[in-house]
């Protein structure tokens, strides 16, 4: 029975690999190159947070920096917010929440039409200390974590779109 189960598992693994199955949220190292993702140009995003997000998206979509013809343009708008969650007796915040909402549009260059759009959001909280330097470091760390979450979500959605687009294009 165990040998039969092992054989079945091997056959299923081979079938999944042969059909182009890739785990959506798996880590995709630098060795993985997807020309369709690399063909997405990330436009400049306003403010410092936007610059950091744009760099993260560019690095994630084309980790090797290989030149490919641009087929799509990605527009992202960020809406950051900060809220004090807990207040000390002296009126200062002891816990702060940072929320970032990102609206994005993927436009096909050839037809100049939006082929995909979406919204993603993240909320990260951090402690506020009496030391101003510790507060700055905590805020920067919260921003980095938020932007990484947004970048990962947008890339996963873009990967799903180009995978679906590839499968319909090859079926025709």
Task: Please give a structural write-up.
- This protein is an alpha+beta fold and 172 residues long.
- The chain is extended.
- The chain has helices at 2-18, 35-38, 47-61, 132-171; strands at residues 40-42, 72-87, 93-108, 113-127.
- A hairpin with a 5-residue loop joins strand 2 (72-87) and strand 3.
- The protein is built from four helices and four strands.
- The chain starts with a helix and ends with a helix.
- Helix content is 44%, strand content 29%.
- Strands 1-2-3-4 form a four-stranded mixed sheet.
- It has one domain (33-171): 2-Layer Sandwich (Double Stranded RNA Binding Domain).
Brief summary of the model shown:
The chain has 172 residues and is of the alpha+beta class. It contains four helices and four strands; from the N terminus they run H-H-E-H-E-E-E-H. The protein has helices at 2-18, 35-38, 47-61, 132-171; strands at residues 40-42, 72-87, 93-108, 113-127.
Could you outline the blueprint of secondary structure elements for this entry?
Layout: H1 2-18, H2 35-38, E1 40-42, H3 47-61, E2 72-87, E3 93-108, E4 113-127, H4 132-171
Parallel strand pairs: 1-2
Antiparallel strand pairs: 2-3, 3-4
Helix pairs in contact: 3-4
For the record, the CATH class is Alpha Beta
The helix/strand order is HHEHEEEH
Query: What is the total domain count?
Result: 1
CATH fold label: Double Stranded RNA Binding Domain
The profile of the biggest β sheet is: 4 strands, mixed
* CATH-assigned homologous superfamily: Lipoprotein like domain
Q: What is the structural class? A: alpha+beta
User: How would you write the strand order of the largest sheet?
Assistant: 1-2-3-4
What Rg do the Cα atoms give?
Answer: 21 Å
Number of helices: 4
Please state roughly what percent of the residues sit in beta strands, choosing from under 5%, 5-15%, 15-25%, 25-35%, 35-45% or over 45%.
25-35%
Mean pLDDT: 83
């Amino acid at each position: 029975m165990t040998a039969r189960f092992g054989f079945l598992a091997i056959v299923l693994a081979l079938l999944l690999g042969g059909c182009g199955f890739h785990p959506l949220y798996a880590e995709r190292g630098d060795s993985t190159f997807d020309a369709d993702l690399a063909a997405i140009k990330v436009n400049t995003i306003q403010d410092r947070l936007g610059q950091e997000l744009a760099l993260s998206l560019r690095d994630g979509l084309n980790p090797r920096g290989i030149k490919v013809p641009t087929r799509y343009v990605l527009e992202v708008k960020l809406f950051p917010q900060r809220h004090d969650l807990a207040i000390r007796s002296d009126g200062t915040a002891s816990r702060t929440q940072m929320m970032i909402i990102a609206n994005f549009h993927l436009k096909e260059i050839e037809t100049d039409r939006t082929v995909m759009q979406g919204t993603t959001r993240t909320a990260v909280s951090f402690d506020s200390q009496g030391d101003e330097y510790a507060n700055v470091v905590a805020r920067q760390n919260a921003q980095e974590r938020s932007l990484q979450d947004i970048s990962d979500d947008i890339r996963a959605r873009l990967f799903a779109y180009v995978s679906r687009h590839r499968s319909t294009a090859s079926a025709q």
